[in-house]
Specification:
Helix content is 0%, strand content 38%. Strand 8 and strand 9 form a beta hairpin. The chain has one domain: Jelly Rolls, CATH 2.60.120.230. By secondary structure, the chain is mostly beta strands.
């Protein structure tokens, strides 16, 4: 019944979810504040996913005094159940040279027409600072058919990073680049998805329905979660300082 779990960091002093009481659940309808880049994603659980493992010299930073926010999405089936979600942390044992951060290359304003067999949706993310791409996790729901992610350089050069021709909601894998890819400031990350809302999609909840962004499995999402490394002394805020129009 757990659709997915996002575990986020909320640093001391953050205004995000200031209306929440520690240790008590907050329903999505009760959320009133907006998450900022400082409230970053620590880890993500999805069906088929595996524990995150970083090589020596890389780590995610949990600032002292931070809260861990569990964003739990359920798809209930009418039967009582017990939530057993938890997280385990392994701390870096040596010097950290690179801080790891997850970017969301997403598009939320889409409409998938009823019966559409191959509806395209594309999202982009502009990099105002240098970053090194490490891994990619495509995320869609039951109508997700395929996804491709690529790097686009300032001179127009396009470099394919990942191609998933047969996406499965039940096996949402994280794909690690064979070699980390250094991308200079001024580059773009782009992810393009195809959705199958036709009767030929055997797991399609309702081919006659128009589909938009939503939390539940019968709605849709389009996100390429891309792990990047920056200098250990830098803040991920630098990756969000110069929003630019998508390519």
């Amino acid at each position: 019944m757990v659709h997915h779990i996002g575990v986020y960091l909320r640093p001391r002093g953050s205004a995000w979810l200031s209306e929440a009481q520690p240790g008590r659940p907050l329903a999505s309808r009760d959320r009133v504040s907006t998450r900022s880049p400082a409230d970053e994603l620590l880890d993500l659980y999805v069906p088929g996913g595996v524990p995150q493992s970083l090589p020596s010299g890389q780590a995610r930073l949990i600032p002292a005094g931070s809260d861990l926010i569990f964003q739990l999405h359920y798809t209930p089936n009418g039967k009582p159940a017990r939530d057993r979600s938890r997280i385990g942390l392994v701390f870096a044992k040596g010097p950290v040279r690179h801080r790891v951060h997850t970017l969301g290359v997403a598009e939320t304003k889409f409409v998938i027409p009823p019966g559409a067999p191959a509806h395209p949706v594309t999202g982009t993310f502009y990099l105002p600072q240098d970053a090194t791409v490490l891994a990619i996790t495509p995320h869609m729901h039951l109508r997700g058919k395929s996804m491709e992610c690529r790097a686009i350089y300032a001179n127009g050069r396009r470099l394919p990073l990942l191609r998933v021709p047969r996406y499965s909601f039940n096996w949402q894998m994280t794909y690690h680049l064979a070699e980390p890819l250094a991308m200079p400031a001024g580059s773009w990350l782009q992810c393009s998805a195809i959705f199958d809302n036709s009767p030929n999609n055997r797991v399609n909840p309702d081919p006659a329905r128009e589909v938009r962004w939503g939390d539940q499995s019968w709605e849709e999402m389009m996100v390429g979660y891309i792990d990047v490394a920056i200098d250990a002394g830098s803040s991920p805020r630098v990756l969000y300082e110069s929003p630019a129009k998508g390519r």
